[in-house]
Amino acid sequence: EELPPAKGRRYSQGIDPGISSDATWAITIDYTERNLMVGVRCRRKVGKQTIPSVVNMVREGHLLYNQDGAACTSTIDSTGFGGKLFRQEFSIIKPLRDYDFGGTRAKKLELLSDLKAVIDKGQIKLPRKGAWMELRRQLLGYKLDDKKLETDAVMALALSVRHATRNPSNPVTKPVFSYFWVIGVLFAIFLGSLGSLFLYSCTIETG
């Protein structure tokens, strides 16, 4: 149910945690080529989970695809955690993003709209075996009014896709601060200001 990480590839892991009920899903996609993203790993734990068990599940997938030249960013639905608790429990996982729905329908709709657009354009390829089949079943039966539906897998995929579609494909992982570059920029701005002042003074003299 998983493809191994590859050097130079970029991965996005989305997690929908089942702290109070349901199931916990962690879905990882390879988004190196955004026109054809690929599902590489799908994990689920059925039933109520403890916070440490969710942290371990997220960390396992994150570390797997964030090594040996591969890079992974994880995004988790933090709605039920609370900001302080979330930061304490998941601080060992970096880079990590959180998505808090905050009870608003609009944020959820936006998330699902991104996923629908990717699927409609044929920009994602998902395996047809194991837990992936449960994800496909949930996708086919999904409705926005989902209170009585199993949607954990759909939301995990949506979180994964959101990062993949809304962030740079090749971000600068270790930006280097250059003192001389900054001085050069400031000097160029200074020269530009002098030029503008010179033109202005000429205009006054000839006007």
- Report the biggest beta sheet as strand number plus sense, adding barrel if it closes: 6 strands, mixed
Based on helices, strands and strand pairing, what is the structural class?
alpha/beta
| Sheet with most strands: strand arrangement | 5-4-1-2-3-6
The overall strand count is 6
Please tell me how large the radius of gyration is.
23 Å
How is this structure best described in words?
The chain has six helices and six strands. The protein has 207 residues and is of the alpha/beta class. Strands 5-4-1-2-3-6 form a six-stranded mixed beta sheet. Helix 3 packs across helix 5 (152-166). The N and C termini lie far apart (77 Å). 29% of the residues are buried. The model is unreliable at 171-179 and 196-207 (pLDDT under 50).
